[in-house]
């Protein structure tokens, strides 16, 4: 719209200039001084008007582009007065300024949002330009981990902590993984990761450092708290009745010693009490032995085995007892030549434990069935799965089933799944349980 009005005004002035030039061309042969002077005067006036008409608009455009060059979008152009085409032009300039200011505002908000997120994480992060060493971004976690103030160039870190600088930033590409760094004469294990990205014509490197020691210490602390809580509970359950019963028996013996005729010693009660103390003591000893078995598995005797042969061994061992309980045990193998590198003794122990758990879960069910399957998925991972149609695991205890000594059974140590998980971790694998109460459970061993 503004361009059309500008073109119309320009054409009118050019037409007027053309008419004046035509009049001058006719007046000169006639030697009419009045018309010649009038035509020349008209040409000068129209030319001056045409020059100012165009110059004014180009000057405004030049001012606008100058402000864009210096990123000054605060200027406001008066779009309420003046010629229509100028008002339209000013409106366009103001709209561009408003749009760019809105974009800048959104970018600032995103930058602030990202800044707050990076400040909240406990991972040390730094981004810098590779060619100049100018620091684009650094968070508080980085400064705390390396014990340095905020800095703008990587040369500061190189001069301040040369050994640390060359250990982390001196190699290219960085070997991602864990490394030991020394800060204030203290060695810290960190997990290092880096990435390179390009902004415009500049290349930046982003490096992230995670304090592994702090994470491991926190995890170990939580594990110890949980383990000590369970052990304290189990030990107190055994010691409290032993102490109470011993105190009762001691009181009875004391009264008999003081006055044998009035308080004769009941040998049967004494024998029953001692028998109870013996059983509880044996239970406590069994608990200690069971705990020791958790620490016993520390290394593997790896070998490549045929999964089918391992299934045959387990079936021969456990099938007779399941037939008496009328529980169907099915082995499913997609590939009879499937092989796996494992500690056969330990994995057989895990599978037998899972099958026995499934047998107990199937008690009271019609047509109880347990399936032990093996397959290799599209990610080249071998999966052994034990599935049953038993009672399933209640949702409220799913997060506790791997806790040592936790059990819902009337008899049992509560270390079966804990030991199974430890064995799978030694194999650099994992154990996954999917259960639906009332329908059954599937336990997968993923290698």
From TrEMBL:
CDD domains, alphabetized: HATPase (cd00075)
Catalysed conversion reaction: ATP + protein L-histidine = ADP + protein N-phospho-L-histidine
Domain of life the protein comes from: Bacteria
Enzyme Commission designation: 2.7.13.3
One family name in Pfam for this protein: HATPase_c
Residues spanning the membrane: 35-54
UniProt-recorded name of the protein: histidine kinase
Lineage summary: Bacteria, Pseudomonadati, Bacteroidota, Flavobacteriia, Flavobacteriales
């Amino acid at each position: 719209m503004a361009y059309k009005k500008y073109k119309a005004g320009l054409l009118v002035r050019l037409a007027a200039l053309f008419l004046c030039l035509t009049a001058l061309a006719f007046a000169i042969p006639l030697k009419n001084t009045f018309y010649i002077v009038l035509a020349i005067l008209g040409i000068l006036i129209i030319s001056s008007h045409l020059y100012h008409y165009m110059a004014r608009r180009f000057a405004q455009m030049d001012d606008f582009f100058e402000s864009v060059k210096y990123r000054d979008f605060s200027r406001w152009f008066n779009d309420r007065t003046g010629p229509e085409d100028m008002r339209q032009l000013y409106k366009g300039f103001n709209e561009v300024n408003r749009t760019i200011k809105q974009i800048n505002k959104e970018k600032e908000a995103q930058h602030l949002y990202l800044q707050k997120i990076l400040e909240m994480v406990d991972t040390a992060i730094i981004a810098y330009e590779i060619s100049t060493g100018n620091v684009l971004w650094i968070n508080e976690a980085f400064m705390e981990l390396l014990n340095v103030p905020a800095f703008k160039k990587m040369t500061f870190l190189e001069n301040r902590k040369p050994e640390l600088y060359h250990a982390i930033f001196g190699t290219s590409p960085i070997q991602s993984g864990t490394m030991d760094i020394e800060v204030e004469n203290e060695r810290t294990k960190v997990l290092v990761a880096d990435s390179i990205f390009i902004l415009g014509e500049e290349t930046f490197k982003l490096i992230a450092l995670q304090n592994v020691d702090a994470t491991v210490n926190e995890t170990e602390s939580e594990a110890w708290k949980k383990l000590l809580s369970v052990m304290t509970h189990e030990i107190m359950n055994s010691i409290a009745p032993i102490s109470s019963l011993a105190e009762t028996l001691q009181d009875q013996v004391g009264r008999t010693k003081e006055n044998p005729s009035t308080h004769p010693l009941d040998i049967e009660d004494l024998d029953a009490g001692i028998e109870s103390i013996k059983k509880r003591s044996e239970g406590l000893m069994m608990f200690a032995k069971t705990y020791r078995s958790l620490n016993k598995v520390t290394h593997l005797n790896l070998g490549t085995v045929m999964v089918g042969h391992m299934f045959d061994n387990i079936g021969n061992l456990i099938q007779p007892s399941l037939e008496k309980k009328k529980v169907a045990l099915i082995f499913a193998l997609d590939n009879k030549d499937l092989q796996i590198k494992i500690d056969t003794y330990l994995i057989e122990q895990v599978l037998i434990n899972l099958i026995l758990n499934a047998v107990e879960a199937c008690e009271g069910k019609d047509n109880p069935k347990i399936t032990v399957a093996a397959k290799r998925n599209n990610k080249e991972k071998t999966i052994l799965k034990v599935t049953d149609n038993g009672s399933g695991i209640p949702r409220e205890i799913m997060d506790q089933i791997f806790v040592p000594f936790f059990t819902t059974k009337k008899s049992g140590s509560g270390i079966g799944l804990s030991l199974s998980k430890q064995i799978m971790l030694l194999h650099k694998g994992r154990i996954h349980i999917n259960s639906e109460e009332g329908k059954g459970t599937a336990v997968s061993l993923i290698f």
